[in-house]
Amino acid sequence: MLFGEIIGQREVKQRLLNMVRDDRTPHALMLFGPAGTGKLALAVAMVQYLACGNRGDGDSCGVCPSCMKFGKLVHPDLHFVVPVLKAGGITAPPVTDDFIVDWREALLSDHYITENLWYEAIGAENKQGIINVRESESIIRKLSFKPYESDYRMMVLWLPEKMNLPAANKLLKLIEEPPDKTLILMVSEHTERIIPTILSRTQLLHVPPLTDTEIREGLKQQGTGDEQLIEDAANRANGNFSLALQTLRQDESESHNFELFTRLMRLCYARNIIEINTWVDQGAGIGRERQKQFIDYSLHLLRENFMLHMENGTLNYMSGREREFALKFSPFIHHGNVFDLVEAFGLAGNHIEANGNPRIILMDLSIRVIRLLMQKPAAAE
Ligand SMILES: [Zn+2]
């Protein structure tokens, strides 16, 4: 990971570069501050810089043998400690090494990975990982060997606040008397949960929230287009790039689903079979996960339109664009067809889930929708 790949944080980067350049790298350093600011990426860029065989003034070279290994996070002198959970098949208390392949993959695919995204990546949503004493023993063992290829042994410890007390006490001894040429680089979001004896022996460096401008630039670099969505996501993120990125992806997916749904409804209402065929091709090409999201989104919008029709618009949960569409569309969603429409979309969702042929499923759905939109409201309405 290069400093150049990390959004903003010019001052923090400069201080890290100076430490290495002036040979003042402490043996225990902690980057701390709120989530989503790039602390972990900065930590990895720092150790890569420390080990780089041909470093420049402002960044690692990116191409030397050491950098090549850092590019895959497989350098033999680079160690990671991250919070983990008990997983199937592991009987001893879990340690990072049990998950190291997942960890490398997760961090390489998202430099701004959050604690929750990490647990999701190892199939443990909504659970809490810890760092246990077995992990501290493993850290001590690893740092007792001579470095293999670089001058330093480097340990990136993500979220030291997840250490339980025995683990923290064990690590404290190491921080008090570290082996020569060792860097323990911690990345924390809650320093108040770390025992004071560790904090007092560690050099602390605050990583501030990003500015809206930095987040906007970062989102643009991710290659996503819509200016307005980027603007909204940056404004709502509070300096947290990870949150901004998640918001943007969600908004984009919703925007795409809105477009798919409204187009299908218009084409079905007009009974335009030729264009429906094009729509089906498009829908069949987006992949099963996104098809399932489209079905969920459609069910949400059908419900909201029915509510709008029934309640005269007092009770609903729609965005401005959805509401604008619903004002024209909701009269067509009534007691006479809403249950069958919900059933038709639900059935399509089940068939997609069961790995059916998406062209057939979506064409079948379209034909049902044509028929159901022609249905008259029930007499009572
Ligand atoms: Zn290099």
Describe how the helices and strands are arranged.
Layout: H1 10-21, E1 28-32, H2 39-51, H3 65-71, E2 78-81, H4 100-109, H5 115-121, H6 133-144, E3 153-158, H7 165-176, E4 182-188, H8 196-199, E5 203-206, H9 212-221, H10 227-236, H11 241-270, H12 273-284, H13 288-311, H14 320-329, H15 338-353, H16 358-373
Bound molecules: zinc ion (ZN).
Residues 52-54, 60-61, 64, 66-67 line the site of zinc ion.
Write up this protein.
The structure is a single chain. The protein is of the alpha/beta class. The chain is 54% helix and 7% strand. It contains 16 helices and 5 strands. Helix 7 links the parallel strand 3 and strand 4. Helix 12 packs across helix 16, helix 13 packs across helix 14 and helix 15 runs antiparallel to helix 16. The protein is elongated, with a radius of gyration of 27 Å. The structure holds zinc ion (ZN). The site of zinc ion has 8 residues, from helix 3.
